[in-house]
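Trying the structure run again after the queue cleared.
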Amino acid sequence: MPEFVLYNAPQSTCSQRVRFVLNAKGLPFEEHKLDLFAGDQLKPEYLAINPNGVVPALVHEGVPIIDSAVIIEYLDEVKPDVAPLRPKGLKDIASMRSLMRFIDEVPTPAIRVPSYNLAFLPHFQKMTEAEFQALADSKPLRREFLLTMGRTGFPQAEMDGAMGRLSRGVARMDETIRASGGPWLMGDQITLADVAVMPVIVRMDDINLATMWDDKPAVARWFELIRAEPAYGPTYYPGSLLTEKYPHLREQLKKAG
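Done. Tokens:
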């Protein structure tokens, strides 16, 4: 059995974090791609690994590690000498973790709102109300989120709130990069904080929200640099972007300019 086994989904932003760290550290892993619409994450065999019923989950030497923020810290602790992704000092590590908490509280959940409205809603609209309710009830961490969206999509007020949180996230990135001297969030070294926010920025770019950093060159430069990282390409293999997975979304965004 391989040392690392990753259960994930190509387009899952949380999965992308973990793939990036595994690739950055050159750690071979066996990848299981779960079909979330088919409910692979809710099957008993997966729930035995991750009772939260979400991706990703990493199994290391037979022991499951769950929650992407926990997993990426765990990987850096397991392999600290290969492509280290944490600062050396305890105070700087605390600052990095504080940034990660902000990322997980503000922009990360916010990007799900436009993502679901744009890409996933057509799938849910094909369901009956009973089927949709059953789907929502089966998801331990996403039930209320799905019920708020419903089969008609998130209301405009919810979309506006998400856009506001994404804007605050980008502004916080810009302020943090400039305060640290950049080009990364914590200064001249890429850290887990950069990895944590990466999928949000990639998703924003993919769904035509990159205008949010048009007036923030530090964020634009950060985005150029992370896409140039050797781990980026194998992390975002073909099919990892929403517009690659859902042709209707690509056409919709193209028409919107």
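The radius of gyration is 18 Å. Worth checking whether this holds up in the mutant runs.
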